[in-house]
Write a structure and sequence with these properties.
Elements lengths: L1 H30 L63 E5 L7 E3 L8 E4 L8 E5 L7 E2 L3 E4 L4 E6 L5 E4 L3 E3 L3 H6 L1 H16 L2 H7 L6 E4 L7 E3 L14 E5 L6 E4 L1 H4 L1 H8 L4 E4 L22 E6 L10 E10 L2 E11 L3
Parallel strand pairs: 10-17
Antiparallel strand pairs: 1-6, 2-9, 3-4, 5-7, 6-7, 7-8, 10-11, 12-13, 14-15, 15-16, 16-17
Helix pairs in contact: 3-4
Length: 345
Amino acid sequence: MKTRLRLIIGRHWLVLALIAATTLSVACRAKEPGLVIPTPPPPTSASPAVVPPTVAPSAELPTAAPPTSTTTPTASPILTATPPPATATAVATVPLAATAVSTEVEYRVAFVAANDVLNVRRQPSPNAAIVTELAPDATGVHAIGEGQTLLGGSLWLPVETAGGDGWVNSAYLTEFVDQKTFCGDPATRAILDQLQEAIATQNGNLLSDLVHPERGLRLRLNWWNPEIIVRGNDLPALFSSRTAYDWGIEDGSGAPIRGSFRDKVLPALERDLLGASEWSCDEARFGPSAGATILPEGYEAVRYFSAHRPSMDDGGFDWGTWVIGVERWQGRYYLSYLVHYQWEI
């Protein structure tokens, strides 16, 4: 009996020992880490330092790329006289070179809608802190030092304002020229002559010579349709290119207008600009229309000519007008915009 009891007790101890060993093994395995392949974090590269230009002592200007007005221009009365901005990157904020600009030139804000403002920033960058704001019709703006041309082509100017000194994207400034000087300058008339020759001969190089490569040419098939801006290398090929643009919608039907400059804009230029018999400076002429005949907001900052082809029919509705914006920039005149008008429903 004692021998049997010892066997039973011995078996129980053996079972308990096996259970304890198994538990310890499982516990040890649970504590062992699995195979983990560490994924290194993406390298972080510090934004390159940007050296600010030398400016007047009162300016608070440290470093770095285009501000943007935040709304799309709509319209303002014409009788008183559109790179989507891409997201800026660290690389795009690096100035390529200092650009000499005259501190004697008076600038005014341009191409900013009436319900928008032009931000003056602490650095030449759309991401920099805002120092103050300029109204869409602000005049009397002066540069206080060298500009900074950034990677991507935009030129920023350090300016002095009543709210503080800072930087603005020069794409939203234009040189102020009084009406008498503008209309009496032979250089502005020469722009018109060369424009007509470029259209008549479909010479893209001749057209390109009229346009500042960075500021570009703003085109509107109707004043109320969106603008298309053509710049740089796209200008010489504009007459032959098959690149399609979205020009807006048809008056009345609302059908989309999509096509190349050659297909959609050139016919209206040939008909209404080359066929114009009434020309005026800084005053637009139109025929009868059920719609409004106004200039897109912000465009009135740039002086212009009007080329009007009057209607030859009894109703007077078959007419067309092109408003031709010509701006002076760094002492030279450039073709700035072309806006088309015709009878509307």
